[in-house]
Protein backbone atom coordinates (compact mmCIF):
# COMPACT_ATOMS: atom_id res chain seq x y z
CA UNK A 1 0.00 0.00 0.00
CA UNK A 2 1.34 3.47 -0.92
CA UNK A 3 2.07 6.11 1.70
CA UNK A 4 -1.00 8.07 2.82
CA UNK A 5 -1.51 11.49 1.22
CA UNK A 6 -1.16 14.68 3.24
CA UNK A 7 -4.59 15.78 4.52
CA UNK A 8 -4.59 19.30 3.01
CA UNK A 9 -3.24 17.96 -0.27
CA UNK A 10 -5.92 15.24 -0.37
CA UNK A 11 -8.64 17.88 -0.04
CA UNK A 12 -7.22 19.81 -2.99
CA UNK A 13 -6.92 16.60 -5.02
CA UNK A 14 -10.54 15.52 -4.58
CA UNK A 15 -11.83 19.06 -5.18
CA UNK A 16 -9.93 19.17 -8.48
CA UNK A 17 -11.32 15.75 -9.46
CA UNK A 18 -14.86 16.90 -8.74
CA UNK A 19 -14.25 20.13 -10.64
CA UNK A 20 -13.22 18.22 -13.76
CA UNK A 21 -16.39 16.11 -13.54
CA UNK A 22 -18.88 18.92 -12.88
CA UNK A 23 -22.51 18.10 -13.53
CA UNK A 24 -23.97 19.69 -16.68
CA UNK A 25 -25.87 22.94 -15.97
CA UNK A 26 -29.65 23.04 -16.02
CA UNK A 27 -32.26 25.82 -15.98
CA UNK A 28 -34.27 25.74 -12.75
CA UNK A 29 -37.25 27.93 -11.76
CA UNK A 30 -36.40 30.40 -9.00
CA UNK A 31 -38.61 28.60 -6.49
CA UNK A 32 -36.56 25.40 -6.93
CA UNK A 33 -33.05 26.91 -6.99
CA UNK A 34 -32.33 27.33 -3.27
CA UNK A 35 -29.14 25.52 -2.24
CA UNK A 36 -27.87 24.97 -5.79
CA UNK A 37 -24.91 26.72 -7.45
CA UNK A 38 -24.89 29.31 -10.22
CA UNK A 39 -23.57 27.91 -13.49
CA UNK A 40 -23.79 31.29 -15.26
CA UNK A 41 -23.29 34.84 -13.94
CA UNK A 42 -26.40 36.48 -12.55
CA UNK A 43 -27.22 39.58 -14.61
CA UNK A 44 -30.37 41.74 -14.91
CA UNK A 45 -32.36 41.80 -18.13
CA UNK A 46 -33.04 45.55 -17.67
CA UNK A 47 -31.48 48.42 -15.80
CA UNK A 48 -32.19 48.34 -12.05
CA UNK A 49 -34.37 50.18 -11.49
CA UNK A 50 -35.84 50.00 -14.96
CA UNK A 51 -37.48 53.44 -14.62
CA UNK A 52 -37.19 56.41 -12.23
CA UNK A 53 -38.77 55.38 -8.94
CA UNK A 54 -39.89 57.53 -6.00
CA UNK A 55 -37.97 56.86 -2.79
CA UNK A 56 -40.54 58.57 -0.53
CA UNK A 57 -44.21 59.40 -0.26
CA UNK A 58 -44.82 62.99 -1.32
CA UNK A 59 -45.40 65.20 -4.33
CA UNK A 60 -43.61 65.13 -7.68
CA UNK A 61 -43.20 68.77 -8.72
CA UNK A 62 -42.17 70.95 -11.64
CA UNK A 63 -41.05 74.59 -11.43
CA UNK A 64 -41.39 76.84 -8.39
CA UNK A 65 -44.11 76.63 -5.76
CA UNK A 66 -46.72 76.73 -4.60
CA UNK A 67 -47.80 73.92 -6.89
CA UNK A 68 -51.23 72.89 -8.09
CA UNK A 69 -51.65 69.13 -7.61
CA UNK A 70 -53.42 67.11 -10.29
CA UNK A 71 -54.19 63.55 -9.15
CA UNK A 72 -51.83 60.92 -7.82
CA UNK A 73 -49.38 58.29 -9.01
CA UNK A 74 -49.32 54.86 -7.35
CA UNK A 75 -46.84 52.04 -7.80
CA UNK A 76 -47.63 49.94 -10.84
CA UNK A 77 -48.97 52.74 -13.05
CA UNK A 78 -47.51 54.92 -15.81
CA UNK A 79 -48.04 58.64 -15.05
CA UNK A 80 -48.64 61.43 -17.51
CA UNK A 81 -45.76 63.92 -17.86
CA UNK A 82 -45.66 67.13 -15.82
CA UNK A 83 -46.01 69.54 -18.71
CA UNK A 84 -46.28 72.92 -16.99
CA UNK A 85 -44.30 74.75 -14.29
CA UNK A 86 -46.07 75.15 -10.96
CA UNK A 87 -47.79 71.77 -11.21
CA UNK A 88 -47.36 68.51 -9.40
CA UNK A 89 -48.82 65.15 -8.62
CA UNK A 90 -49.11 63.17 -5.40
CA UNK A 91 -46.75 60.18 -5.56
CA UNK A 92 -46.27 57.01 -3.53
CA UNK A 93 -43.01 55.29 -2.64
CA UNK A 94 -42.02 52.94 -5.45
CA UNK A 95 -44.15 54.69 -8.05
CA UNK A 96 -42.80 55.72 -11.46
CA UNK A 97 -41.68 59.35 -11.43
CA UNK A 98 -43.46 61.44 -14.11
CA UNK A 99 -41.39 62.88 -16.94
CA UNK A 100 -40.65 66.55 -16.26
CA UNK A 101 -40.30 66.11 -12.47
CA UNK A 102 -37.71 68.48 -10.98
CA UNK A 103 -38.18 67.68 -7.29
CA UNK A 104 -40.12 65.50 -4.87
CA UNK A 105 -41.45 67.14 -1.73
CA UNK A 106 -41.87 64.71 1.13
CA UNK A 107 -45.40 64.53 2.47
CA UNK A 108 -44.16 65.33 5.99
CA UNK A 109 -42.51 68.52 4.71
CA UNK A 110 -45.55 69.70 2.73
CA UNK A 111 -48.40 72.05 3.56
CA UNK A 112 -51.54 71.37 1.54
CA UNK A 113 -54.66 73.44 1.11
CA UNK A 114 -57.14 72.00 -1.34
CA UNK A 115 -55.29 71.30 -4.54
CA UNK A 116 -52.39 73.62 -3.63
CA UNK A 117 -49.24 72.37 -1.93
CA UNK A 118 -46.25 74.31 -0.63
CA UNK A 119 -42.98 73.52 1.10
CA UNK A 120 -39.24 73.22 0.56
CA UNK A 121 -38.02 70.06 -1.17
CA UNK A 122 -34.67 68.64 -0.14
CA UNK A 123 -31.76 69.62 -2.33
CA UNK A 124 -30.82 65.97 -2.97
CA UNK A 125 -32.80 63.83 -5.38
CA UNK A 126 -35.62 61.84 -3.74
CA UNK A 127 -35.93 59.18 -6.44
CA UNK A 128 -33.88 56.37 -7.89
CA UNK A 129 -32.69 56.71 -11.47
CA UNK A 130 -32.52 53.86 -14.02
CA UNK A 131 -29.36 51.79 -13.63
CA UNK A 132 -28.61 53.14 -10.15
CA UNK A 133 -28.26 49.60 -8.77
CA UNK A 134 -27.15 47.83 -11.95
CA UNK A 135 -27.22 48.09 -15.72
CA UNK A 136 -28.79 45.54 -18.04
CA UNK A 137 -26.40 42.64 -18.60
CA UNK A 138 -24.04 43.68 -15.81
CA UNK A 139 -22.75 40.56 -13.98
CA UNK A 140 -23.82 40.86 -10.35
CA UNK A 141 -22.81 37.42 -9.03
CA UNK A 142 -20.22 35.06 -10.52
CA UNK A 143 -20.38 31.42 -11.53
CA UNK A 144 -19.95 29.22 -8.45
CA UNK A 145 -22.09 31.39 -6.14
CA UNK A 146 -24.32 29.32 -3.84
CA UNK A 147 -27.98 30.15 -4.38
CA UNK A 148 -29.55 31.51 -1.20
CA UNK A 149 -32.93 33.17 -0.58
CA UNK A 150 -31.12 36.50 -1.03
CA UNK A 151 -29.82 35.41 -4.43
CA UNK A 152 -33.31 34.25 -5.42
CA UNK A 153 -34.75 37.63 -4.44
CA UNK A 154 -32.07 39.45 -6.43
CA UNK A 155 -32.73 37.23 -9.46
CA UNK A 156 -36.43 38.03 -9.31
CA UNK A 157 -35.72 41.76 -9.10
CA UNK A 158 -33.48 41.33 -12.18
CA UNK A 159 -36.48 40.08 -14.13
CA UNK A 160 -35.39 36.44 -14.24
CA UNK A 161 -37.78 33.51 -13.98
CA UNK A 162 -35.12 30.76 -13.86
CA UNK A 163 -31.43 30.32 -13.08
CA UNK A 164 -28.69 28.34 -14.80
CA UNK A 165 -27.37 26.12 -12.00
CA UNK A 166 -25.44 22.95 -11.33
CA UNK A 167 -28.03 20.39 -10.22
CA UNK A 168 -27.93 18.74 -6.82
CA UNK A 169 -25.73 15.63 -6.98
CA UNK A 170 -27.44 12.30 -6.43
CA UNK A 171 -25.84 10.05 -3.85
CA UNK A 172 -26.31 6.43 -2.85
CA UNK A 173 -25.36 4.99 0.52
CA UNK A 174 -24.03 1.45 0.86
CA UNK A 175 -23.42 -0.10 4.27
CA UNK A 176 -21.00 -3.01 4.42
CA UNK A 177 -20.92 -5.41 7.36
CA UNK A 178 -22.69 -8.65 8.27
CA UNK A 179 -22.36 -7.68 11.92
CA UNK A 180 -24.71 -4.72 11.63
CA UNK A 181 -28.26 -4.46 12.92
CA UNK A 182 -30.74 -1.95 11.49
CA UNK A 183 -33.16 -2.08 14.43
CA UNK A 184 -33.14 -2.84 18.12
CA UNK A 185 -30.28 -2.90 20.65
CA UNK A 186 -26.84 -4.43 20.07
CA UNK A 187 -26.64 -8.08 21.14
CA UNK A 188 -25.04 -11.44 20.40
CA UNK A 189 -21.92 -10.01 18.81
CA UNK A 190 -23.83 -7.70 16.46
CA UNK A 191 -23.86 -3.90 16.69
CA UNK A 192 -26.34 -1.28 15.60
CA UNK A 193 -25.64 0.49 12.31
CA UNK A 194 -25.32 4.20 13.15
CA UNK A 195 -24.02 5.39 9.77
CA UNK A 196 -26.87 4.22 7.53
CA UNK A 197 -29.29 6.74 9.03
CA UNK A 198 -26.76 9.53 9.77
CA UNK A 199 -24.52 9.84 6.70
CA UNK A 200 -27.47 10.42 4.31
CA UNK A 201 -28.70 13.12 6.70
CA UNK A 202 -25.28 14.81 6.56
CA UNK A 203 -25.32 14.55 2.77
CA UNK A 204 -28.76 16.11 2.54
CA UNK A 205 -27.51 19.03 4.62
CA UNK A 206 -24.76 19.42 2.02
CA UNK A 207 -27.36 19.78 -0.73
CA UNK A 208 -27.23 16.20 -1.98
CA UNK A 209 -30.20 14.02 -2.87
CA UNK A 210 -29.75 10.80 -0.90
CA UNK A 211 -32.00 8.05 0.40
CA UNK A 212 -31.27 5.93 3.45
CA UNK A 213 -29.89 2.46 2.63
CA UNK A 214 -32.34 -0.40 2.82
CA UNK A 215 -30.04 -2.98 4.46
CA UNK A 216 -26.35 -3.74 4.89
CA UNK A 217 -24.60 -5.35 1.92
CA UNK A 218 -23.40 -8.94 2.40
CA UNK A 219 -19.69 -9.36 3.10
CA UNK A 220 -18.88 -11.00 -0.25
CA UNK A 221 -17.09 -9.59 -3.28
CA UNK A 222 -20.01 -10.45 -5.55
CA UNK A 223 -22.49 -8.60 -3.35
CA UNK A 224 -20.23 -5.54 -3.19
CA UNK A 225 -19.81 -5.39 -6.96
CA UNK A 226 -23.53 -5.90 -7.57
CA UNK A 227 -24.48 -3.14 -5.09
CA UNK A 228 -22.02 -0.67 -6.59
CA UNK A 229 -23.21 -1.42 -10.12
CA UNK A 230 -26.86 -1.04 -9.10
CA UNK A 231 -26.12 2.35 -7.54
CA UNK A 232 -24.30 3.49 -10.69
CA UNK A 233 -27.11 2.24 -12.91
CA UNK A 234 -29.55 4.10 -10.66
CA UNK A 235 -27.90 7.41 -11.55
CA UNK A 236 -25.76 8.05 -8.48
CA UNK A 237 -23.10 10.72 -9.00
CA UNK A 238 -21.55 9.74 -5.68
CA UNK A 239 -21.63 6.46 -3.78
CA UNK A 240 -20.66 6.57 -0.12
CA UNK A 241 -19.69 3.26 1.41
CA UNK A 242 -18.86 2.43 5.01
CA UNK A 243 -16.31 -0.18 6.03
CA UNK A 244 -14.09 -2.35 3.91
CA UNK A 245 -11.46 0.32 3.24
CA UNK A 246 -8.61 -1.74 4.65
CA UNK A 247 -7.37 -5.13 3.41
CA UNK A 248 -8.80 -7.59 5.95
CA UNK A 249 -10.47 -10.94 5.20
CA UNK A 250 -13.92 -9.35 4.62
CA UNK A 251 -12.76 -6.01 3.19
CA UNK A 252 -13.96 -6.29 -0.39
CA UNK A 253 -14.13 -2.64 -1.44
CA UNK A 254 -10.72 -2.47 -3.13
CA UNK A 255 -11.19 -5.58 -5.31
CA UNK A 256 -14.75 -4.43 -6.11
CA UNK A 257 -13.42 -1.08 -7.31
CA UNK A 258 -10.84 -2.85 -9.43
CA UNK A 259 -13.56 -4.96 -11.04
CA UNK A 260 -15.45 -1.78 -11.93
CA UNK A 261 -12.40 -0.20 -13.55
CA UNK A 262 -12.15 2.52 -10.90
CA UNK A 263 -9.10 4.72 -10.50
CA UNK A 264 -8.10 6.03 -7.08
CA UNK A 265 -8.24 9.79 -6.64
CA UNK A 266 -7.02 9.46 -3.04
CA UNK A 267 -6.24 6.20 -1.26
CA UNK A 268 -5.57 6.69 2.48
CA UNK A 269 -4.90 10.05 4.07
CA UNK A 270 -2.37 11.00 6.73
CA UNK A 271 -5.01 12.02 9.28
CA UNK A 272 -6.09 10.69 12.65
CA UNK A 273 -8.66 9.38 13.16
CA UNK A 274 -9.88 7.90 9.89
CA UNK A 275 -6.78 7.48 7.72
CA UNK A 276 -8.04 4.45 5.66
CA UNK A 277 -10.43 6.69 3.68
CA UNK A 278 -10.53 6.84 -0.10
CA UNK A 279 -12.15 8.42 -3.14
CA UNK A 280 -12.19 6.59 -6.48
CA UNK A 281 -13.39 7.72 -9.90
CA UNK A 282 -15.54 5.29 -11.87
CA UNK A 283 -16.36 5.79 -15.58
CA UNK A 284 -20.06 5.06 -16.10
CA UNK A 285 -22.72 6.29 -18.50
CA UNK A 286 -20.34 8.52 -20.43
CA UNK A 287 -19.05 10.49 -17.48
CA UNK A 288 -17.15 10.13 -14.21
CA UNK A 289 -18.89 9.02 -11.03
CA UNK A 290 -17.26 8.77 -7.62
CA UNK A 291 -17.06 6.27 -4.77
CA UNK A 292 -16.16 7.64 -1.35
CA UNK A 293 -14.97 4.83 0.91
CA UNK A 294 -15.60 5.83 4.51
CA UNK A 295 -14.07 3.77 7.34
CA UNK A 296 -16.44 1.60 9.31
CA UNK A 297 -15.79 3.21 12.69
CA UNK A 298 -18.45 5.91 13.08
CA UNK A 299 -16.30 8.90 14.03
CA UNK A 300 -13.71 7.94 11.42
CA UNK A 301 -16.48 7.84 8.81
CA UNK A 302 -17.50 11.39 9.68
CA UNK A 303 -13.85 12.47 9.52
CA UNK A 304 -13.74 11.07 5.98
CA UNK A 305 -16.98 12.85 5.13
CA UNK A 306 -15.71 16.28 6.19
CA UNK A 307 -12.21 15.64 4.87
CA UNK A 308 -12.92 14.32 1.38
CA UNK A 309 -16.63 14.28 0.55
CA UNK A 310 -17.27 17.97 1.27
CA UNK A 311 -14.48 19.27 -1.03
CA UNK A 312 -15.40 16.66 -3.66
CA UNK A 313 -19.00 17.90 -3.68
CA UNK A 314 -17.81 21.51 -3.89
CA UNK A 315 -15.85 20.68 -7.03
CA UNK A 316 -18.67 18.61 -8.51
CA UNK A 317 -21.12 21.52 -8.14
CA UNK A 318 -18.70 24.18 -9.38
CA UNK A 319 -17.97 25.80 -6.04
CA UNK A 320 -14.49 26.80 -4.87
CA UNK A 321 -12.62 24.61 -2.43
CA UNK A 322 -14.12 25.32 1.01
CA UNK A 323 -12.24 27.89 3.07
CA UNK A 324 -12.02 26.72 6.67
CA UNK A 325 -12.85 29.20 9.44
CA UNK A 326 -10.45 29.60 12.35
CA UNK A 327 -11.09 29.26 16.06
CA UNK A 328 -8.97 29.98 19.10
CA UNK A 329 -8.17 27.04 21.35
CA UNK A 330 -9.13 27.40 24.99
CA UNK A 331 -7.19 24.28 26.00
CA UNK A 332 -4.22 22.34 24.62
CA UNK A 333 -4.86 19.76 21.88
CA UNK A 334 -2.15 17.15 21.23
CA UNK A 335 -0.68 16.52 17.80
CA UNK A 336 -0.43 13.14 16.10
CA UNK A 337 3.16 13.12 14.86
CA UNK A 338 3.39 13.05 11.08
CA UNK A 339 -0.39 12.90 10.73
CA UNK A 340 -2.90 15.76 10.80
CA UNK A 341 -5.00 15.49 13.94
CA UNK A 342 -8.70 16.30 13.62
CA UNK A 343 -9.76 16.85 17.21
CA UNK A 344 -13.42 17.14 18.11
CA UNK A 345 -14.13 20.45 19.84
CA UNK A 346 -17.05 22.44 21.08
CA UNK A 347 -17.09 26.23 20.88
CA UNK A 348 -18.02 27.90 24.15
CA UNK A 349 -20.92 30.33 23.59
CA UNK A 350 -19.62 32.64 26.33
CA UNK A 351 -15.93 33.16 25.51
CA UNK A 352 -15.94 31.79 21.93
CA UNK A 353 -13.01 29.45 22.63
CA UNK A 354 -12.76 25.93 21.23
CA UNK A 355 -12.22 23.15 23.74
CA UNK A 356 -11.87 19.39 23.23
CA UNK A 357 -14.83 17.18 24.04
CA UNK A 358 -14.69 13.81 25.76
CA UNK A 359 -15.61 10.35 24.43
CA UNK A 360 -13.84 10.78 21.11
CA UNK A 361 -12.72 7.26 20.26
CA UNK A 362 -13.03 6.45 16.57
CA UNK A 363 -15.90 4.03 17.35
CA UNK A 364 -17.72 6.57 19.55
CA UNK A 365 -20.41 9.08 18.64
CA UNK A 366 -21.10 10.61 22.04
CA UNK A 367 -18.45 13.30 21.67
CA UNK A 368 -19.40 14.00 18.07
CA UNK A 369 -23.04 14.63 18.94
CA UNK A 370 -22.09 17.61 21.12
CA UNK A 371 -19.25 18.99 18.99
CA UNK A 372 -19.10 21.96 16.62
CA UNK A 373 -16.46 20.33 14.47
CA UNK A 374 -12.85 19.25 14.26
CA UNK A 375 -9.91 21.47 15.18
CA UNK A 376 -7.10 20.93 12.67
CA UNK A 377 -3.70 20.29 14.25
CA UNK A 378 -1.14 20.09 11.40
CA UNK A 379 1.52 17.37 11.18
CA UNK A 380 4.42 17.89 13.55
CA UNK A 381 2.50 20.47 15.60
CA UNK A 382 0.70 20.67 18.93
CA UNK A 383 -2.25 22.92 19.66
CA UNK A 384 -1.68 25.26 22.57
CA UNK A 385 -4.25 27.33 24.45
CA UNK A 386 -4.53 30.63 22.59
CA UNK A 387 -3.52 29.20 19.19
CA UNK A 388 -5.76 30.05 16.22
CA UNK A 389 -6.42 26.88 14.23
CA UNK A 390 -8.62 25.86 11.33
CA UNK A 391 -12.00 24.33 12.13
CA UNK A 392 -13.72 21.72 9.97
CA UNK A 393 -17.38 22.13 10.88
CA UNK A 394 -19.73 19.16 11.00
CA UNK A 395 -22.68 19.74 8.63
Amino acid sequence: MSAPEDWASARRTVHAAGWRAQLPPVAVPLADADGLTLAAPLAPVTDLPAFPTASVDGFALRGRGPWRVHGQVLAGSVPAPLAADGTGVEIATGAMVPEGTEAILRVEHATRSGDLVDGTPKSEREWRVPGEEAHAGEPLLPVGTPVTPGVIGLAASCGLDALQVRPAPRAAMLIFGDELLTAGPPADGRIRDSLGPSIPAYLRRLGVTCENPVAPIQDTLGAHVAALRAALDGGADLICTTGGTMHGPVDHLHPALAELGAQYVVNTVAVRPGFPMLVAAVPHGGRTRFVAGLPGNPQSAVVALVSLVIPLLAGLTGRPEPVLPRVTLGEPVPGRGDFTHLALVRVDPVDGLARPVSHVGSAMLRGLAGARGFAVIPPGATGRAGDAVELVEVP
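Residues 298-316 form the longest helix (19 residues). DSSP finds seven helices and 26 strands in the chain.
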